[in-house]
Write a structure and sequence with these properties.
mainly alpha; 3 helices; about 60% helix
């Protein structure tokens, strides 16, 4: 550490040297699980379209089979739309987390195995 300098200044200098050695720029640096914004938008669009298509397909097939046109297709259209919105909510809520990790906001509960005896 330089005389009179703070530990943060020394760390920042070492971090910049290490990034320069790796050829890493701020534009190429991404955290775990990060995706380009266009990829996220495409995923959300596909999620909504797929949920609507599946819902309407199920509704159409049931209408054809049961002879209830168009009522079940309308019902399953709204169910598919709800599923699409739910998929978008899950995708946006999970942004920035690694696979298998979901932040609950609460500390883990302490295990008290001795009280069970």
């Amino acid at each position: 550490m330089a005389a009179g300098g703070s530990p943060d200044d020394d760390f920042d200098a070492r971090l910049q040297r290490a990034r320069a050695q790796r050829g890493e720029t701020p534009a190429t640096r991404r955290g775990p699980g990060s995706k380009p914004p266009m990829g996220i938008g495409f995923r959300i669009g596909v999620d909504v379209a797929a949920a609507l298509a599946v819902g309407m397909g199920i509704g159409y097939a049931l209408d054809y089979w049961l002879g209830t046109r168009p009522w079940l297709m309308v019902v399953f259209f709204f169910l598919g739309a709800g599923a699409g919105v739910l998929n978008v909510y899950r995708a946006v809520r999970g942004m920035g987390y690694e696979v298998g990790y979901r932040h609950s906001g609460a500390p883990p509960a302490a295990r008290d195995d001795e009280s069970d005896e």
